[in-house]
Amino acid sequence: MNQSDAQQAVSAYRSLLDLPMLAGLCDMQRAVAAEWSVEESVNRLKVLHYLLKRLSEIWVFRITSEPIYELKTLFSHHAYLAAEHTELIRRRVAEMREPPLGLEHVPHPALGQLTDELQGCPERLEFCRAVYELVLARILEACKSLQQDAHPLADAPTVRVAKWLAFELSEMLDQGKQVVSALAAHEPAHEDDFEQSSSDEWLASLETCLQAAITRKDTTGEADSASQPSGEPSLPPRLYSTSKSEFNSLPARDERFQDPYNAGVNPEAFLYDEAFSARDKSLMMYYKRLRELDVPETMASILTELKDQEPWAFYYEMVRQLWDEARHAMMGEVGFVSLGIDWTLIPINFTWSLNLNTQLTARERHGVLFFIEQGLMPKTGKRFEWEVAMQSGDPLCGLFQDFDWADEVLHAQIGRRWYVPKFSSLVEALKYGDRCWNKVMSRWSWYREQGFTQHRNWWPELYQQACAKWGVSPDPRALAFCETYEDSRADLKSIREAPDNQPYT
Question: Per the domain annotation, does 440 fall within a domain?
Answer without folding.
Answer: yes
